[in-house]
Amino acid sequence: MPQAAAPAVGGLKENVAGLLCYLLGWLTGIIFFLIDKRPAVRFHAAQSIVVFGSLSILRIILSFGLYGSHMVGLYSLWALLALLVTVFTVVLWVILMVTAYQGKQFEIPFASGLARSLAASGKV
Predict the structure, then answer these.
(1) Phi, psi (5° rounding) for residue 10?
(2) Residues 21-61: pLDDT tens digits?
(3) E strand residue ranges, the chain
(4) How far apart are the C-alpha atoms of 46 and 123, rounded to whole Å?
(5) What share of the chain is helix, strand, coil (3-state, %, to 5)?
(6) Is 17 exposed, middle or buried (0-12, 13-18, 19+ CB in 10 A)?
(7) 70 contacts 93 by C-beta, under 8 angstroms
């Protein structure tokens, strides 16, 4: 007997809900993880939480390094690292939203395994 599909949240199609999981990073990831029970949407939500949550923590750590470095060369290194993380975050954000809208699951190495585990367990 085939399993019935989980109902759409607010009438959103699965690809639109997947895109919205990434819209505001880990914040919308948490929201959709809690309200949508469709496996594909839960994967996107969990991956958003893992990826953008990790990148947010990394940016916070880098910002402390920026404020704590008083030497010009060290400050430049921290600033370059922070800029690279920011550019990487924006590029990844666009890629994840576009592929989710296309109905694909773009899996980020290391994060997708944890995201699959989170999506399967149903716990944040």
Answers:
(1) 60, 25
(2) 999 999 999 999 999 999 999 999 999 999 999 999 998 88
(3) none
(4) 10
(5) 75, 0, 25
(6) buried
(7) no
